[in-house]
Each structure stands twice: as structure tokens, then as C-alpha cells.
Fold this protein.
Amino acid sequence: MFQETLMSHLLLWGNAYAQIIRDGTGRVLALYPLLPSKMTVDRAQNGELYYTYRRDSEESRANPKAGLVYLRSDEVLHIPGLGFDGLIGYSPIAMAKNAIGMAIACEE
């Protein structure tokens, strides 16, 4: 189920994200899928990537606070699709839509 979720995110949005939960020694305990539509990727002044996730209050019963969650690059598994800026991938569906639209416009 986890793999199918990430694959659908990758195909629909062009990116797949999962939060990495680690124990005190750094071993990975769990991976939680994150919605690509709520994620922003940016680069800090020192060149490191960081992620901002917009969390709704309904997302976590244990911690119902809504707001922004900032994650370091070592806290996120990011699988980008085809992209041009090194930060995010582009949705293959949106790319196909644009190609079809350009073909129709050229025909006219």
C-alpha cells in the first residue's frame, strides 16, 4: 500500500514525499506518506534543501495542531519526477496536457 501511494503521488503530482521517523540511534522506524499538494521545497542560503508541510488539524489525532511543519532533508524521503530546477518534479499528466494543448494551438 505504501509503494502504491507514493507511485500515485509521483504520477499525479510529479513528486512523492514520506516523512522519515527515526529512533535515538538514527535507525529508521517508519515512513509516513505526505501529500505533495501540501509540500513546498526550498533551498536555504547554505545550499541545503528544506521542506515545509502545511498540516491540517484533521491529519493527526495525537497532535491536532494545524500549521506549518518544517523538515530537514534528512527527515524526508523525496522522490522527484522529471524536473528542471533540481528541487521538484513536474506532473506527467500536466506535461501531457500542455503538449496536447500546444499541438492543438499549432494546428489552428
Summary: The mean pLDDT is 89. The longest helix spans residues 92-107. The chain has two helices and six strands. Residues 41 and 105 are 33 Å apart (CA to CA).
